[in-house]
Amino acid sequence: MVEYHVIPIGRVESTLKERAQAPRQGDEGAPDAWLVFEPGVADGIRDLAAGAEVIVLTWLDRASRDVLVTRPRDDPARPPTGVFSTRSPDRPNPIGLHRVRIVATEGLRVLVRPLEALDGTPVIDVKPVLDRAAER
Amino acid sequence: MVEYHVIPIGRVESTLKERAQAPRQGDEGAPDAWLVFEPGVADGIRDLAAGAEVIVLTWLDRASRDVLVTRPRDDPARPPTGVFSTRSPDRPNPIGLHRVRIVATEGLRVLVRPLEALDGTPVIDVKPVLDRAAER
């Protein structure tokens, strides 16, 4: 099977340092965090502006990639569930999806809210939220 | 800079064969398409069921990875825009996000609607839609 290579475009800079600290989802008390982009993608981020809602994709580099079945939210009351029916970070390709709002931009640094990804997590893509009603 | 390796978990089987045929977004007339999973991830897809809304992540293997600025929807009336403020497939890590509904499942094959990805596109992840109001 062919493999593809993901190249980080930046890193998360956050007060969250360990997985045990991190909320399950951004809207469960996650802090603001900086996205610190590589100089090579400066042109790609030039239109990111405060106020915009975006989807940040990360590579969850502390996840386990050999997990196919898990208990959602580590809750023993829930039955074991196929990972593709959960948001567990442990999955074959550990890509995180984070819907956030841009709070501020400073050159290659973009402050977003809220973000549950850990400090140092690679950022691999940013996409605008498609608002089907308003955007087209 | 460290690279990460994405391993396809399946492929798209679709009537869309070429990029010129494909709508820009799934809700602009895209067809139903099959996701055909690898036998090795069978346990991971076991809870995908007809009716569920999921986000399919693909690796857009026919995209250009060296594009940082583009015109949204190839519209000459729009100004050149940093790719991270667009949904262009041409971007450093060409990951597609597709919100679809599962129509049917047959073993390792899952029929979804609508999907604008081309025939043969690698599938790299599937996640449930988080309905913040209803799900938690």
Provide the fold topology.
The structure is a homodimer of 136-residue chains.
Chain A: E1 4-6, E2 10-13, E3 33-37, E4 53-59, E5 69-70, E6 81-82, E7 95-106, E8 109-113, E9 122-128
Antiparallel strand pairs in A: 2-3, 2-9, 3-8, 4-7, 4-9, 5-6, 7-8
Describe the structure.
2 copies of one chain form a homodimer. With 136 residues, the first copy, chain A, is mainly beta. Chain A is 0% helix and 35% strand. In chain A, the strands form 2 sheets. The first copy, chain A, has a 6-stranded antiparallel beta barrel with strand order 2-3-8-7-4-9. Chain A has a two-stranded antiparallel ribbon with strand order 5-6. At the A-B interface, strand 1, strand 4, strand 6 and strand 9 of A face strand 1, strand 4, strand 6 and strand 9 of B. Strand 1 (4-6) of chain A pairs antiparallel with strand 1 (4-6) of chain B.
Short note summarizing the structure:
Two copies of one chain form a homodimer. With about 140 residues, the first copy, chain A, is an all-beta fold. The first copy, chain A, contains no helices and nine strands.
